[in-house]
Structure formats: structure tokens, C-alpha cells
Design a protein that fits this description.
The complex is a heterodimer of chains A (295) and B (219). Chain A is an alpha/beta fold. Helix content of chain A is 42%, strand content 23%. Chain B starts with a helix and ends in an 8-residue tail after the last helix. Classes of the chains: A alpha/beta (295), B mainly alpha (219).
Chain lengths: 295, 219
């Protein structure tokens, strides 16, 4: 009887995930299929993503226009711009999550680690194994803190308790959450604060050791202190991961990113070192946007 | 635009306060040379007295600028406008202090007839005062061309300063009885030369404000 209930819950969760977070589910399933988890460890800064002549249409609507953008390893790249400028579309294109939207067409290419992600032979699951994503709203599974983090590795077939313990601790430490939850690992994750839940989602992402972490407004639902914690965490994470973050908070982009791209009406108006873009932008439209004259 | 209405208004207010500071300082500078030229002790004392008003306004500008930074978290041109306002206020306040120094020198000068031709020092003062005026105009109009003009004028001031100092040195050897006056003369010439340097800083600030890059106009 108990097993049946668990199975039922499991099924409910999968359905919930399918609705809330299909990308992550695919990612976890794929990692399980592939087995091995590997993380490249180049010392020099390389280009992780090279976007050239990227165009994207939603039906007739030309949403991304001739985008050229190089994203570097072990850096935080911020994408800013007013609503509807294409920044979320772009970040969702990086892991091909955009394909879930009907009537989407693309042209041009995005090369991730020397392979065009639009290649017929490139399996989307393979890409999403390397590219994790954190969303605006924290979305922990309705399970314990421990099980949330162990979820991915378990699907990969890791059953050894000690190995799982290590992964859970390492991931929670990596997400700067360990000290706060180490005494309640088996409590339901729903009892954590919003900021803690978001860090838990980051820990869950780290547990399967991605290469790139995409963040779509990860702090917009959080209070200022939790926001600062996540920002500090992002600074630390970039030592081991490449991070691309979409944010409406321009001060946040200025604080945490190395490079910033300003999107407007589907185009990249300016892409430069963050220090320069926020102190002395070259394009008048960038200046008008960051100083709050429009948008 | 409505989103920035208050901020734009505050930036304008900051600019107005700075221009007011500039105007008070120009007046002090003008009076100081008159006090010196006409040995007008009363006018000199008035300049010294009025300086506290300038100091207070400078503090007010700094406080307001810091408040704006805290409240608006400005970036790019807005941030430069505020930071440059603080820097310009500092330079102008220094210029006003030199006006006070000139006034004090005028008092110490005594009422003996001048041992030196006044023309060159008056000329030097005129140019320095004009540099301050142009600096303020360049700031108000954010005019880089005007700002650069100040640098050229500074060369003229430096040249005059050299001439005056050489003359004073020569006088010093032969005019023991005028030693005190000659000493005050050289101090005043030095004050005016410093005023011109601060005016040149105004020019540099304006270029940075507009271009976002540093230029050394003093070099």
C-alpha cells in the first residue's frame, strides 16, 4: 500500500514537473541515460557560446534579429533590456527550450563548445545535460531538502548512500545553503524561505555538475537580503561555471556581471564589459535605458 | 519621461546650486582685486566675512549630491553629473578661499604707495577671473570646446606669473624698505596663479562630464 502511495506521488511529481519545468525533467532524464557526468576544466577563458547571425521568428513576429554574441567561460554575462526585447527568448534559445513554443523558426547558428546546437545530429537532451537553468520562481520538488538535491544523481543511477551524502553536502555548500539546512535535511523543502528555496534549486542544478548555468531573473521574487546572497553566490559560482543571467535589475547586472548585453527590439544594441557599459556606454539608446529614460 | 521627472528636477537643482556657488565666488574674486587695488580694507573684510556663506553652500551641494547618489543609484552620465558637481564645488570653494587670501594680503599690504606697476597683476587677475567664468559656462552648457579654451588661457596666466615674479625678485634686491609689500605682491601673484589652475580643473571636469574620459589640460 505504502509503495502505491509513493508511486502515485512520484507520478504526480513527474506530471507537475512536465508542466512546470519540462526542460529540467528532460535534462535529468538525459543525464540518467548518458551515465557519465563530466565537467571540462580548461584554465584559459574560452568562448562557451558563439552566436552568429541568429534570427528567430514567432510565427510572423521577428523576435531576434541578426544576433552576434560571444559568451566567455567562467564569466557572468548579464542580459538586460526592456520587456519584449528578446532577452528571455535568447536565453531560452541557448538550451533550445524555445522549441517548446509552437511556430518558432530560427536561422543562423549558436555554437556551444564547438558544435552548432541547431545541428540535426545534436540531441537536445545532450545539450541540456550541460546547460542548467534556474527560474524566476523557486520551484523545489515537494520532497525533502536532501531528496531535492539527490534527485538528479539518483536518476543517474547513484544509489550508494555515502556518495549521495557527499554530493548533497557538496552541492548545498556550493549553493551557500548547507549551514542553514544541515540540521533539517529531511524536512520538506516547502518549509524553506523563498531565498533558501532558490538556493536549493541552484544546489539541485549543481548536483548534476553542468557546464553553463542559465538564470532567468533568479532574484526577482526574492527579498533584498536573499537577493544579495544569491548575487554573492553567483560571484563564487563563476569560478567553476559560466553563468548567463537575464535580469530586470540593472544595478544587479552592474554589480555581478563581467559583461553585459543590452537588447532592444530583438537586437543587441551594445555588448561590452559591464564596467564600461554602465559608466560610459557607446550607444545613446543604452545610456537612455540604463539611466531610466525609457523601458 | 515621467519616471525621471523628480530625478531630472533634482539634477537641475544641483546644477543651479553649483552656479550660485560659482557666482558668489566670482563676486568675491572681483572684490578681492578691488580691495587690493584701492587698499579698501572694509571691502577686504567683507570678502572674508562672506566666505562662510560659500563654505556652507559647498557643504550643501556635497550633501545633496550624496543624497542623490544614495536615492537614485545613478549610472553613466547621471553619475558623472553628480560626481563632477562635487569636484567642481571643491575647486570653486578653493578659488573662493584664494579670494579671501588676496583680501587678507590686501589688508597686510599697508598703505604705502605701490612699489610695482599694477598692470601685469591686474591683467593676470582678469584672465584668471575670465577662466573661472568660462569654466562655469562650459559646465552649464556642457561645452567641451569652451572647456579646452581654459587651458590656453592658463598658459597666459603662467607667462604673466613668471614675468611678475622676475620683476619682484629684481625689486627685492634694491627695495629693502618695501620688503613686506613685495612679499605680499608675490603671494597675491601666487594666489592668482593657483586660481587659474583650479579654473583649468573646471575645464577638465567638464571634458570628463561630457566625454567620460580624463584629459589633462594642465599638462
Amino acid at each position: 500500500m505504502k509503495d502505491n502511495i509513493d508511486e502515485y506521488r512520484w507520478l504526480l511529481m513527474l506530471i507537475w514537473m512536465e508542466e512546470e519545468n519540462p526542460m529540467e525533467l528532460t535534462m535529468i532524464k538525459t543525464k540518467a541515460e548518458n551515465g557519465a557526468i563530466s565537467k571540462p576544466a580548461e584554465k584559459d577563458k574560452e568562448i562557451v557560446y558563439r552566436t552568429s547571425e541568429l534570427n528567430l521568428w514567432y510565427g510572423e513576429h521577428h523576435a531576434l534579429k541578426n544576433i552576434h554574441l560571444d559568451i566567455y567561460e567562467n564569466e557572468v554575462t548579464a542580459i538586460i533590456g526592456p520587456s519584449g526585447c528578446g532577452k528571455s527568448t535568447y536565453i531560452k534559445t541557448l538550451n533550445r527550450m524555445i522549441e517548446l513554443v509552437p511556430n518558432v523558426r530560427t536561422s543562423g547558428e549558436i555554437v556551444y563548445r564547438n558544435r552548432n546546437i541547431f545541428d540535426q545530429s545534436y540531441r537536445v537532451e545532450e545539450l541540456r545535460t550541460q546547460v542548467g537553468m534556474v527560474f524566476q520562481k523557486p520551484n523545489p520538488f515537494p520532497k525533502s531538502v536532501y531528496d531535492n538535491v539527490a534527485y538528479g544523481p539518483r536518476i543517474h543511477g547513484i544509489r550508494d548512500k555515502r556518495t549521495l551524502d557527499e554530493i548533497v553536502e557538496k552541492s548545498l555548500r556550493g549553493a551557500a545553503l548547507w549551514d542553514e539546512v544541515k540540521d533539517r535535511l529531511y524536512d520538506n523543502a516547502g518549509g524553506l524561505s523563498g531565498g533558501q528555496q532558490q538556493r536549493l534549486c541552484i544546489a539541485r542544478c549543481l548536483a548534476i555538475e553542468p557546464d553553463v548555468i542559465l538564470m532567468d531573473e533568479p532574484t526577482s521574487a526574492l527579498d533584498p537580503i536573499s537577493t544579495l546572497r544569491i548575487e554573492e553566490l553567483i560571484q563564487r559560482l563563476k569560478e567553476n561555471y559560466s553563468i548567463i543571467i537575464v535580469t530586470h535589475n540593472m544595478q544587479q547586472a552592474a554589480r555581478i556581471s563581467d559583461k553585459t548585453a543590452f537588447f532592444l527590439n530583438g537586437e543587441v544594441v551594445e555588448y561590452d564589459d559591464t564596467d564600461r557599459l554602465f559608466s560610459n556606454p557607446s550607444d545613446k539608446r543604452t545610456e537612455d535605458y540604463i539611466t531610466g529614460r525609457f523601458g | 519621461m515621467p519616471a525621471r521627472e523628480k530625478f531630472d528636477y533634482d539634477l537641475k537643482t544641483l546644477q543651479q546650486k553649483l552656479l550660485e556657488l560659482g557666482s558668489l565666488t566670482e563676486t568675491a574674486l572681483n572684490y578681492s582685486i578691488q580691495a587690493f587695488q584701492h587698499k579698501n580694507i572694509e571691502l577686504a573684510l567683507q570678502i572674508i566675512d562672506n566666505d562662510s556663506q560659500i563654505d556652507t553652500l559647498e557643504e550643501e551641494i556635497n550633501d545633496f549630491a550624496i543624497l542623490l547618489i544614495a536615492k537614485q543609484q545613478p549610472v553613466a552620465i547621471d553619475l558623472r553629473r553628480i560626481v563632477i558637481a562635487i569636484k567642481i564645488a571643491t575647486d570653486i570653494e578653493r578659488i573662493a578661499d584664494f579670494a579671501v587670501d588676496i583680501a587678507k594680503a590686501a589688508i597686510r599690504m599697508g598703505d604705502r604707495p605701490f612699489a610695482l606697476e599694477m598692470e601685469k597683476i591686474m591683467q593676470m587677475h582678469r584672465v584668471a577671473l575670465e577662466m573661472v567664468s568660462i569654466g562655469l559656462k562650459a559646465y552649464y552648457e556642457e561645452d567641451v570646446v569652451l572647456a579646452r579654451k581654459i587651458a590656453e588661457m592658463d598658459d597666459e596666466v603662467d607667462e604673466l606669473y613668471g614675468q611678475i615674479m622676475r620683476e619682484l625678485l629684481r625689486l627685492n634686491a634694491t627695495n629693502q624698505e618695501n620688503a613686506l609689500q613685495i612679499n605680499q605682491f608675490s603671494l597675491i601673484a601666487r594666489y592668482i596663479e593657483r586660481i587659474a589652475d583650479h579654473a583649468t580643473n573646471l575645464g577638465e571636469h567638464v571634458v570628463y562630464l561630457v566625454k567620460g574620459k580624463h584629459y589633462d589640460l594642465n599638462g
